Amino acid sequence: MSQRFIFWLSMVVPGSGHMLLRRVRETLFGYSLLALEILVFIQFVLPNFRLLAVEQPNGKITIGAERFVDDSFLIMVGSTLGGLMLLMFIAFHYAFARDAKDVKRQIDVNGYAITFTEKVRGLSHEIVPNLITAPKFILLFVFAFLPAIVSIIVAFTNYKRPVLPPAFLLEWKGLSNFERLFTNERAAAAFQETLVWTMTWTFCASALTIVLGTVLAVVANNKRIRGKKFFRTIYILPWAVPAFLTILVFQLFFSKVGGMNTMVIPFFTGNEYDVSTAIGFFLNADYAKITIILIQAWLGFPYVFILVTGVLQTIPDDLYEASSIDGGNAWSNFFDITLPLILISVAPVFITQFTFNFNNVTIVYMLGEATVQTIGSIYKPLDTISSLGFRLMMDAKYNEAAVYTLIASTVVGAIVLYTWIKAGAFKNEEVM
Amino acid sequence: MENTMKLNPARKTKSLNRNFLMRNMGLIASYTFLIVMAIIIIYPILLTIMSAFNVSNTLYSTSFFPENFSFTENFKSLFNDTAYLSWYTNTFLLSIVTMVLSTVIVVVSGFVYSRYRYASRKSALMSLLIIQIVPSGSGLIALYAMASSIGIYSSENATLYTYIFMTLIYTALGTTMNTLLMKGYYDSIPRDLDESAKIDGATQLQIFTEILLPLVKPMIVVIAIFCFLGPIGDIIMPKFLIASMSSDSKTLAVGLMGLINDIKDSNYNVFAAGAVLAAIPPVLVFYKFQDYIVGGLTSGGVKG
Amino acid sequence: MSKISLRNIVKKYPNAEHCSVSDFNLDIEEGEFIVLVGPSGCGKSTTLRMIAGLEDITSGEFILDGEVVNNVSSKDRDIAMVFQSYALYPHMSVRENVGYGLKLRNYPAETTKKQVDEISKDLFLTQYLERKPKELSGGQRQRVALGRAMVRTPKLYLMDEPLSNLDAKLRTTTRSEISRMHRAKGAITIYVTHDQVEAMTMADRIVLMSMGEVQQIGSPKELFTNPKNCFVATFMGMPSMNLIEGSYKAGNFSCDSFTIAVSDTDKKILDDAGYDGKSLFLGARSSAIRSGKKYEEAFPNSCFETTAMNVEYLGDSVNVFFNAEPNNLFVGTLGTGEREVEVDEKVTLVLDNTKLHFFDSETEESIKYTINQVK
Ligand SMILES: Nc1ncnc2c1ncn2[C@@H]1O[C@H](COP(=O)(O)OP(=O)(O)O)[C@@H](O)[C@H]1O
Ligand SMILES: [Mg+2]
Q1: pLDDT, tens digit, for every residue of B56-68?
Q2: Locate the ABC transporter domain: which residues (chain C) (predicted)?
Q3: Which residues contact C44 (CB under 8 A, 6 or more apart)?
Q4: Looking at the complex, does the CB of residue B56 fall below 8 Å from at least one CB of chain A?
Q5: A252 CA distance to ligand 1 middle (Å)
């Protein structure tokens, strides 16, 4: 009876390894677990799995067998849960197998093994922290993890108005939702256009925000500038006011009847305001694109401003003193000391800004509502991948929305993961 | 040694003279830049405040200052003609409950991750990091479908249930990054203090409440503010989850957006009044705790 | 029955390869002042933290008042501890810091106040009672840390390098302060330091550790006069003991630089132990190295001539450094009235051969240790 035999036996039937070792309580525990698993499997997992793919007489593969009786969506969620439960069962079996093997090893080496009571006492300091953090993980599981998984699955169905469960059964569509983006001529062209604009938007908005915030911080923190507090108070206003308000204000401001046309342009050109010649900034695609980048810079720069100000204030004066003893002047001070130090701290901000703007549905969607759709296109000029996902969702085209959301999440996730791995975030105990 | 001492002041004055004008031009340019930027920031905000007090029948106004000043007119119609008051209470209830829930969760779990050493700690932290990457909007489809499948929308108390649902979503989303921030802050407090208190006779709970909580207060404030401002500023979730509901059930964001996009009875001045009122609490909170936010940002924000 | 017993204590950190403390045994009697001393990283803090209940004991027994308390939590062990970092609660005033332990033990506010006032008077903290720790100087903070421990009367005081963050002068005064408090309280104190001077001056008994193992336990005098091995010999005493490898033959010890006769008692011991014709380490404290006519006459067979390489003036004495092959720097401490030595000067030095130590060259154990112990 080798350790390996005990391990695999317990892996298949938890508790049986312990039974061979004459450990009564673990055996009982293991068998009751198995009983519970079988119960859950029969009562919950199996019914869901069985309805997950049903072939209808007309050859279509649907989720659920009968309209109004089976709710395709609940089956989808139930199957996801069922799949996760199976994974959990495997983890339980593995824990039992490990323990049985360990008991066997202890008996082989010492002739005896620690008792069940001692084992439980040893585990108590594992149980407490897990219990305290359990509510958070339950919340995260139900409201973040599970929905994200289910949303991915939606991308492979025909979940889209009017096909709404329980009145209709959802149908598996395989990869066709994705294929459309590349094969359907119109869709492909529009997708490409959106992709280009998404990249442009993400890059320009992030870059402008960072440059503006950094330059302002450097200028405002010059020793010879007075009224730093005053400027700081004003510059963080855009951060303090909720963004949706500002976005709405700007939507108005740049409209044909908004302040830009009625006051600012007349002030600079000297012409009277006239509705007929007024510029609708969101009615022209190019104007709209430039305007939205400018507005995002307006909204986003205070964060960078504060961050860089903080960095500037932590640069000790003796660094400059040391440099002037070495013969440095104001310019070399800036380029040799200030700028490198700022760049070090701004580098990670670029990633956060980048992902933020890539995902920034709020401004794109809200200002997008003010734009007009290009004739014959399903896209609006300001739509990015993420905002499109949201807009399609609002139009109840859930499967198409899921495709876009999936693409967007994958891109962002890949970028963030890549930068973390490069920065060694997973190795460094401190970060953890 | 002597040479340099003699040379230095002379060189300094000379270079000062030569650069005097140039340097001041730099300064003037700096001030101009700062002031222009300040105007660009302030102007739209002031304009909104001004129009909140302007009563006009025309669609537009060409003057910065109210042509037809009224202190209360727009606010009156805001409260009478729209469901502004319920938007307002909805929104602030939502964000206050979210704030309390997530702050409690974050403060407690940050403590656990910083102070307990247990087998699954690392994987717990790792999963927080990973979940945090997933954009918050990506699960929305499933959340909506879940809500309708479990009958939230068809129930009598649809509004209440939807708000509870949203609160839980915001709470869940607010606990990932913030927990990591909070844990980092706990980590900066030496464990010697815990041990010292332990020897002084404190229980684990007393160490938490009497030693650590007072010390992490600045970070608690920051996280509470973030969690408070999050739901107020969000339009995505409510737009999607409560779009089809009655006007009374809306949040400020959805309500005001509807006000401005509904061309027929657009009254921009009424919108402006609503915007001003909505902005006051967050702006006050923000300015009151400015130093905390800046501190929290520069302590933890740069790292993560 | 001793008050405290540590039996075969072993500590292995979960992620560490080696044991940080291996097989630590010690019995402590009522009222003793024990100093754990050793180079940094040798496991002193680990030992102390196991006693405090801040670290689990991997194996072995910690017995307090006849009971095994391995699994009793810190707060129930009735101990007080002074940390190297002081670990003052930053958000509490000095008064609250000092009184916190009493408050947690539900002392009435009156008593707490009285006791805090008393101890602060003792430690000259009265005028700082309402301040926060960050408004105090290093020395004051240290006294607060001390006061926080001293305000209670536990079974056991633990101190982990409490003086290492102070300047030299404060260290000396606080040292005697701690000794005074210990005498007043009479409770067992276990004190950790890497500084042998603190160990020598304060301890009733010293536990000298190295690499997680106890090297020798004994009174300061025992460790100084009868070190068990080379490590103890060189660790205790300043400047540290001179060690030189050489060979012993027929009452003479010779190395590359000199040959000297050992004393008659030493000769008997070495011969009996079978070291005739073998190599061994000779140990001589700098105080055993003298110069001048008087000594030359007293020890005519253990004189040798050398060149002073460096001289350190210490006020009432000088340290003379000279070369002794193979590769050893010898140091002698010459008192006033002896010859004044200059650098590069040729000088005749005398080894006081009644004060020599001999160590086995393989095991580095002292050859005279057991014999001296019996005496
Ligand atoms: N938490 C820990 N985990 C792993 N190893 C540790 C830990 N603390 C101390 N050690 C190791 O144990 C040894 C003894 O440390 P310590 O008791 O702190 O020494 P010191 O005598 O300087 O107080 C050192 O080698 C140290 O690296
Ligand atoms: Mg130490």
Answers
A1: 766 677 777 777 7
A2: 4-236
A3: C36, C37, C38, C160, C192, C193, C194, C209
A4: no
A5: 65
What does each C-alpha distance from A9 to A5, A33, C265, C279 come to in angstroms? 6, 15, 73, 63
Specify which residues C218 forms β-bridges with. C206
In angstroms, the CA B31 to CA B37 distance is: 10
Instruction: Express each pLDDT in C102-132 by its tens digit.
Output: 999 999 999 999 999 999 998 999 999 999 9
Helices B268-288 and A243-253, interaxial angle, to 10°? 140
- C296 alpha carbon, distance to own chain's centre: 34
C64, β-bridge pairs: C4, C67
Chain B residue nearest residue C85, CA to CA: B192
Both tokens of A422, joined, read 């490069």
CA distance C205 to chain B (A): 25
In this structure, how many other beta carbons lie within 10 angstroms of the beta carbon of residue A410? 12
Give the span between the Cα atoms of A417 and A411, in whole angstroms.
10
CATH top-level class for C231-374?
mainly beta
Topology (CATH level 3) of domain C4-228: Rossmann fold (3.40.50)
Ligand in nearest proximity to the CA of A429: 1
Q: How far apart are CA C178 and CA B148, in angstroms?
A: 72
ipTM of the prediction: 0.86
CA atoms of B240 and B146, how far apart (whole Å): 13
pTM of the model: 0.87
Could you give the CA distance from residue C370 to residue C375 in angstroms, rounded to a whole number? 9
Kindly list the structural domains of chain A, giving each domain's residue range(s) and its CATH number in brackets, ordered by start.
3-174 (no CATH), 178-423 (1.10.3720.10)
Distance between CA atoms of residues A136 and B171, nearest Å: 9
Instruction: Establish whether residue C48 lines the binding site of ligand 1, counting it when its CB lies within 6 angstroms of any ligand atom.
Output: no
Q: How big is chain A, counted in residues?
A: 432
Comparing C-alpha atoms, which of C344, C354, C248, C356 is closest to residue C295? C354
Give the DSSP H/E element, type plus range, for residue B218: helix B217-233
Domain B82-299 listed as CATH 1.10.3720.10: yes
- CA dist., res. B130 & res. B128, Å (int): 5
For chain B, say whether C83 makes contact (Cβ under 8 Å): yes
Looking only at the bridges linking them, the beta strands covering C21-28 and C4-11 are antiparallel
- For B143, the token pair is 């959340």
